[in-house]
Amino acid sequence: MTRQHRGNLICWxxxxxxxxxxxxxxxxxxxxxxxxxxxxxAIVMAVLVALAYMRLLSGPELGRGFAIAGxxxxxxxxxxxxxxxxxxxxxxxxxxxxxxxx
Amino acid sequence: MSxxxxxxxxxxxxxxxxxxxxxLAGMWLFLASEVLFFGGLIVAWMFCRHWQPDGFDAGAxxxxxxxxxxxxxxxxxxxxxxxxxxxxxxAGDVRRLVQCCLITACIGVLFLGLxxxxxxxxxxxxxxxxxxxxxxxxxxxxxxxxxxFYFVATGLHAVHMIVGIALVGWVAWQARHRTYSANWYTPVxxxxxxxxxxxxxxIVLYPVIYLVGRT
Lengths: 102, 215
Hints:
The complex is a heterodimer. By secondary structure, chain A is mainly alpha-helical. Chain A is built from 3 helices and no strands. Helices cover 76% and strands 0% of the residues of chain B. Chain B is built from 6 helices and no strands. The interface between A and B is large, with 48 and 53 residues.
Protein backbone atom coordinates (compact mmCIF):
# COMPACT_ATOMS: atom_id res chain seq x y z
CA MET A 1 0.00 0.00 0.00
CA THR A 2 1.49 3.32 -1.07
CA ARG A 3 1.55 6.45 1.05
CA GLN A 4 -1.22 7.99 -1.07
CA HIS A 5 -3.49 4.96 -0.59
CA ARG A 6 -2.82 4.96 3.15
CA GLY A 7 -3.64 8.66 3.38
CA ASN A 8 -6.89 8.16 1.46
CA LEU A 9 -7.90 5.29 3.76
CA ILE A 10 -7.13 7.23 6.94
CA CYS A 11 -9.13 10.19 5.62
CA TRP A 12 -12.10 7.91 4.82
CA UNK A 13 -12.03 6.43 8.35
CA UNK A 14 -11.90 9.96 9.82
CA UNK A 15 -14.82 11.07 7.62
CA UNK A 16 -16.97 8.11 8.63
CA UNK A 17 -16.13 8.69 12.31
CA UNK A 18 -17.03 12.38 12.04
CA UNK A 19 -20.26 11.55 10.21
CA UNK A 20 -21.28 9.12 12.95
CA UNK A 21 -20.24 11.69 15.59
CA UNK A 22 -22.57 14.36 14.20
CA UNK A 23 -25.32 11.74 13.81
CA UNK A 24 -24.93 10.84 17.51
CA UNK A 25 -24.68 14.51 18.55
CA UNK A 26 -28.02 15.23 16.89
CA UNK A 27 -29.76 13.21 19.64
CA UNK A 28 -28.23 15.38 22.38
CA UNK A 29 -30.77 17.77 23.97
CA UNK A 30 -29.21 20.97 22.63
CA UNK A 31 -31.25 24.19 22.87
CA UNK A 32 -32.65 25.58 19.63
CA UNK A 33 -30.03 28.32 19.31
CA UNK A 34 -27.12 25.89 19.71
CA UNK A 35 -28.38 23.28 17.21
CA UNK A 36 -26.37 24.84 14.33
CA UNK A 37 -23.26 23.64 16.24
CA UNK A 38 -24.03 20.31 14.59
CA UNK A 39 -22.52 21.87 11.47
CA UNK A 40 -19.04 21.92 13.07
CA UNK A 41 -18.22 18.24 12.32
CA ALA A 42 -19.52 18.80 8.78
CA ILE A 43 -17.16 21.74 8.28
CA VAL A 44 -14.24 19.62 9.52
CA MET A 45 -15.30 16.87 7.09
CA ALA A 46 -15.44 19.35 4.21
CA VAL A 47 -11.93 20.59 5.02
CA LEU A 48 -10.68 16.99 5.16
CA VAL A 49 -12.13 16.21 1.73
CA ALA A 50 -10.62 19.39 0.27
CA LEU A 51 -7.18 18.62 1.69
CA ALA A 52 -7.00 14.86 1.17
CA TYR A 53 -9.17 14.01 -1.85
CA MET A 54 -9.05 17.34 -3.72
CA ARG A 55 -5.36 17.81 -2.85
CA LEU A 56 -5.84 21.50 -2.30
CA LEU A 57 -2.37 22.10 -0.89
CA SER A 58 -0.47 20.28 -3.62
CA GLY A 59 -2.62 21.57 -6.49
CA PRO A 60 -1.84 24.55 -8.73
CA GLU A 61 -1.36 27.88 -6.93
CA LEU A 62 -4.00 29.54 -9.08
CA GLY A 63 -6.48 26.84 -8.06
CA ARG A 64 -5.73 27.52 -4.38
CA GLY A 65 -6.34 31.21 -5.06
CA PHE A 66 -9.74 30.45 -6.61
CA ALA A 67 -10.64 28.20 -3.67
CA ILE A 68 -9.72 30.92 -1.16
CA ALA A 69 -11.64 33.52 -3.21
CA GLY A 70 -14.72 31.27 -3.20
CA UNK A 71 -14.56 30.90 0.56
CA UNK A 72 -13.94 34.65 1.00
CA UNK A 73 -17.03 35.61 -1.00
CA UNK A 74 -19.04 32.90 0.76
CA UNK A 75 -18.04 34.49 4.08
CA UNK A 76 -19.14 37.89 2.74
CA UNK A 77 -22.44 36.41 1.55
CA UNK A 78 -23.23 34.57 4.79
CA UNK A 79 -21.78 37.24 7.10
CA UNK A 80 -23.67 40.19 5.65
CA UNK A 81 -26.86 38.15 5.24
CA UNK A 82 -26.91 37.02 8.86
CA UNK A 83 -26.42 40.62 10.06
CA UNK A 84 -30.07 41.39 9.40
CA UNK A 85 -31.67 38.66 11.53
CA UNK A 86 -29.03 39.10 14.24
CA UNK A 87 -29.37 42.85 14.62
CA UNK A 88 -32.99 43.62 13.70
CA UNK A 89 -35.09 44.66 16.70
CA UNK A 90 -38.67 43.42 16.52
CA UNK A 91 -41.10 45.68 18.35
CA UNK A 92 -44.57 44.67 19.38
CA UNK A 93 -47.32 46.49 17.56
CA UNK A 94 -48.99 48.88 20.07
CA UNK A 95 -52.68 48.21 20.65
CA UNK A 96 -54.95 50.27 18.49
CA UNK A 97 -57.15 52.77 20.32
CA UNK A 98 -60.86 51.96 20.12
CA UNK A 99 -62.68 53.86 17.39
CA UNK A 100 -64.22 57.08 18.63
CA UNK A 101 -68.00 56.83 18.87
CA UNK A 102 -69.93 59.55 17.11
CA MET B 1 12.29 27.47 -29.64
CA SER B 2 11.37 24.19 -31.27
CA UNK B 3 8.12 23.98 -33.24
CA UNK B 4 7.50 20.50 -31.89
CA UNK B 5 5.19 20.11 -28.95
CA UNK B 6 4.84 17.19 -26.60
CA UNK B 7 1.73 14.96 -26.68
CA UNK B 8 -1.29 16.48 -24.92
CA UNK B 9 0.26 19.95 -24.99
CA UNK B 10 -1.57 22.64 -26.90
CA UNK B 11 0.50 25.34 -28.51
CA UNK B 12 -0.43 28.08 -26.04
CA UNK B 13 1.11 26.28 -23.06
CA UNK B 14 4.78 26.13 -22.15
CA UNK B 15 4.65 22.47 -21.21
CA UNK B 16 2.33 19.69 -20.09
CA UNK B 17 2.50 20.84 -16.46
CA UNK B 18 1.38 24.33 -17.45
CA UNK B 19 -1.54 22.90 -19.42
CA UNK B 20 -2.56 20.59 -16.60
CA UNK B 21 -2.34 23.34 -13.96
CA UNK B 22 -4.46 25.64 -16.14
CA UNK B 23 -7.16 22.98 -16.58
CA LEU B 24 -7.26 22.24 -12.86
CA ALA B 25 -7.34 25.96 -11.99
CA GLY B 26 -10.28 26.31 -14.38
CA MET B 27 -12.12 23.58 -12.50
CA TRP B 28 -11.35 25.31 -9.19
CA LEU B 29 -12.76 28.57 -10.60
CA PHE B 30 -15.96 26.76 -11.61
CA LEU B 31 -16.19 25.21 -8.14
CA ALA B 32 -15.73 28.64 -6.53
CA SER B 33 -18.79 29.84 -8.48
CA GLU B 34 -20.64 26.72 -7.30
CA VAL B 35 -19.76 27.58 -3.69
CA LEU B 36 -21.63 30.88 -4.10
CA PHE B 37 -24.48 29.10 -5.90
CA PHE B 38 -25.05 26.76 -2.97
CA GLY B 39 -24.23 29.60 -0.53
CA GLY B 40 -27.51 31.25 -1.54
CA LEU B 41 -29.33 28.12 -0.41
CA ILE B 42 -27.63 28.29 2.99
CA VAL B 43 -28.67 31.95 3.31
CA ALA B 44 -32.28 30.93 2.60
CA TRP B 45 -32.02 28.21 5.25
CA MET B 46 -30.63 30.67 7.84
CA PHE B 47 -33.37 33.24 7.21
CA CYS B 48 -36.25 30.77 7.17
CA ARG B 49 -35.09 28.97 10.31
CA HIS B 50 -34.51 32.27 12.13
CA TRP B 51 -37.93 33.76 11.41
CA GLN B 52 -40.00 30.55 11.54
CA PRO B 53 -38.06 28.42 14.08
CA ASP B 54 -40.83 26.16 15.37
CA GLY B 55 -42.44 25.40 12.02
CA PHE B 56 -39.09 24.96 10.29
CA ASP B 57 -37.93 22.41 12.89
CA ALA B 58 -41.32 20.68 12.77
CA GLY B 59 -40.77 20.20 9.05
CA ALA B 60 -37.21 18.92 9.57
CA UNK B 61 -38.41 16.27 12.02
CA UNK B 62 -40.35 14.61 9.20
CA UNK B 63 -37.24 13.88 7.10
CA UNK B 64 -36.10 10.27 6.61
CA UNK B 65 -32.93 10.30 8.71
CA UNK B 66 -31.70 6.80 7.87
CA UNK B 67 -31.64 7.46 4.14
CA UNK B 68 -29.78 10.75 4.58
CA UNK B 69 -27.20 9.07 6.85
CA UNK B 70 -26.62 6.11 4.52
CA UNK B 71 -26.26 8.54 1.61
CA UNK B 72 -23.63 10.50 3.56
CA UNK B 73 -21.57 7.34 4.10
CA UNK B 74 -22.05 6.36 0.44
CA UNK B 75 -20.81 9.66 -0.95
CA UNK B 76 -17.83 9.83 1.41
CA UNK B 77 -16.94 6.30 0.33
CA UNK B 78 -17.30 7.21 -3.35
CA UNK B 79 -14.83 10.09 -2.97
CA UNK B 80 -12.41 7.70 -1.28
CA UNK B 81 -12.75 5.16 -4.10
CA UNK B 82 -12.27 7.78 -6.82
CA UNK B 83 -9.21 9.23 -5.06
CA UNK B 84 -7.80 5.73 -4.89
CA UNK B 85 -8.31 5.51 -8.65
CA UNK B 86 -6.35 8.75 -9.12
CA UNK B 87 -3.52 7.27 -7.05
CA UNK B 88 -3.60 4.17 -9.26
CA UNK B 89 -3.33 6.12 -12.52
CA UNK B 90 -0.44 8.09 -11.03
CA ALA B 91 1.31 4.74 -10.78
CA GLY B 92 0.25 3.87 -14.34
CA ASP B 93 -2.36 1.27 -13.38
CA VAL B 94 -5.15 1.98 -15.89
CA ARG B 95 -7.12 -1.19 -15.13
CA ARG B 96 -7.50 -0.27 -11.47
CA LEU B 97 -8.53 3.27 -12.44
CA VAL B 98 -11.35 1.87 -14.59
CA GLN B 99 -12.48 -0.35 -11.73
CA CYS B 100 -12.47 2.56 -9.28
CA CYS B 101 -14.47 4.73 -11.70
CA LEU B 102 -17.08 2.01 -12.17
CA ILE B 103 -17.41 1.49 -8.41
CA THR B 104 -17.70 5.26 -7.91
CA ALA B 105 -20.43 5.52 -10.57
CA CYS B 106 -22.30 2.56 -9.03
CA ILE B 107 -22.20 4.22 -5.61
CA GLY B 108 -23.52 7.39 -7.22
CA VAL B 109 -26.40 5.48 -8.83
CA LEU B 110 -27.15 3.85 -5.46
CA PHE B 111 -27.20 7.31 -3.85
CA LEU B 112 -29.68 8.53 -6.44
CA GLY B 113 -31.82 5.40 -6.03
CA LEU B 114 -32.08 6.02 -2.30
CA UNK B 115 -32.80 9.70 -2.95
CA UNK B 116 -35.67 8.80 -5.31
CA UNK B 117 -36.99 6.37 -2.67
CA UNK B 118 -36.82 9.18 -0.11
CA UNK B 119 -38.72 11.57 -2.38
CA UNK B 120 -41.35 8.86 -2.94
CA UNK B 121 -41.73 8.41 0.84
CA UNK B 122 -41.91 12.19 1.34
CA UNK B 123 -44.61 12.59 -1.29
CA UNK B 124 -46.53 9.63 0.13
CA UNK B 125 -46.54 11.43 3.49
CA UNK B 126 -48.00 14.59 1.88
CA UNK B 127 -44.86 16.61 2.55
CA UNK B 128 -44.76 18.44 -0.78
CA UNK B 129 -45.16 22.12 0.18
CA UNK B 130 -47.91 22.82 -2.37
CA UNK B 131 -51.33 21.26 -2.01
CA UNK B 132 -52.59 19.17 0.91
CA UNK B 133 -49.87 19.19 3.59
CA UNK B 134 -49.25 16.84 6.49
CA UNK B 135 -48.42 19.53 9.07
CA UNK B 136 -51.27 21.84 9.99
CA UNK B 137 -51.85 24.61 12.52
CA UNK B 138 -49.42 27.33 13.52
CA UNK B 139 -46.35 25.37 12.38
CA UNK B 140 -47.63 24.76 8.85
CA UNK B 141 -46.12 27.93 7.32
CA UNK B 142 -42.58 27.28 8.60
CA UNK B 143 -42.83 23.58 7.75
CA UNK B 144 -43.85 24.40 4.17
CA UNK B 145 -40.81 26.70 3.95
CA UNK B 146 -38.56 23.88 5.15
CA UNK B 147 -39.94 21.44 2.60
CA UNK B 148 -39.56 24.01 -0.18
CA PHE B 149 -35.91 24.36 0.83
CA TYR B 150 -35.58 20.57 1.06
CA PHE B 151 -36.84 19.84 -2.45
CA VAL B 152 -34.83 22.66 -4.04
CA ALA B 153 -31.60 21.71 -2.24
CA THR B 154 -31.84 17.95 -2.78
CA GLY B 155 -33.04 18.45 -6.36
CA LEU B 156 -30.09 20.68 -7.25
CA HIS B 157 -27.71 18.24 -5.59
CA ALA B 158 -29.24 15.33 -7.51
CA VAL B 159 -28.72 17.20 -10.80
CA HIS B 160 -25.05 17.64 -9.87
CA MET B 161 -24.86 13.94 -9.03
CA ILE B 162 -26.25 12.96 -12.44
CA VAL B 163 -23.65 15.17 -14.15
CA GLY B 164 -20.94 13.67 -11.92
CA ILE B 165 -21.93 10.09 -12.71
CA ALA B 166 -21.83 10.89 -16.43
CA LEU B 167 -18.36 12.45 -16.06
CA VAL B 168 -17.01 9.51 -14.04
CA GLY B 169 -18.42 7.13 -16.66
CA TRP B 170 -16.75 9.19 -19.39
CA VAL B 171 -13.40 8.97 -17.55
CA ALA B 172 -13.82 5.18 -17.24
CA TRP B 173 -14.60 4.91 -20.97
CA GLN B 174 -11.60 7.07 -21.89
CA ALA B 175 -9.32 5.11 -19.56
CA ARG B 176 -10.53 1.83 -21.03
CA HIS B 177 -9.38 3.09 -24.42
CA ARG B 178 -5.93 3.83 -22.97
CA THR B 179 -6.29 7.58 -23.22
CA TYR B 180 -4.60 8.12 -19.86
CA SER B 181 -1.20 7.13 -18.55
CA ALA B 182 1.05 7.94 -15.63
CA ASN B 183 2.32 10.89 -17.68
CA TRP B 184 -1.05 12.45 -18.50
CA TYR B 185 -4.30 12.11 -16.55
CA THR B 186 -5.49 15.71 -16.08
CA PRO B 187 -9.19 14.97 -16.88
CA VAL B 188 -9.15 12.26 -14.21
CA UNK B 189 -8.02 14.84 -11.65
CA UNK B 190 -10.48 17.50 -12.84
CA UNK B 191 -13.46 15.14 -12.63
CA UNK B 192 -12.22 14.05 -9.19
CA UNK B 193 -12.35 17.69 -8.03
CA UNK B 194 -15.95 17.97 -9.22
CA UNK B 195 -16.97 14.68 -7.62
CA UNK B 196 -15.42 15.57 -4.27
CA UNK B 197 -17.11 18.98 -4.39
CA UNK B 198 -20.52 17.32 -4.86
CA UNK B 199 -19.57 15.16 -1.87
CA UNK B 200 -18.80 18.31 0.19
CA UNK B 201 -22.18 19.80 -0.73
CA UNK B 202 -23.92 16.74 0.69
CA ILE B 203 -21.68 16.80 3.78
CA VAL B 204 -23.00 20.33 4.47
CA LEU B 205 -26.61 19.63 3.47
CA TYR B 206 -26.83 16.53 5.69
CA PRO B 207 -26.83 18.35 9.08
CA VAL B 208 -28.75 21.31 7.62
CA ILE B 209 -31.61 19.10 6.43
CA TYR B 210 -31.63 16.14 8.77
CA LEU B 211 -29.93 17.01 12.07
CA VAL B 212 -30.23 20.65 13.14
CA GLY B 213 -34.03 20.71 13.25
CA ARG B 214 -34.38 17.29 14.88
CA THR B 215 -34.99 18.57 18.42
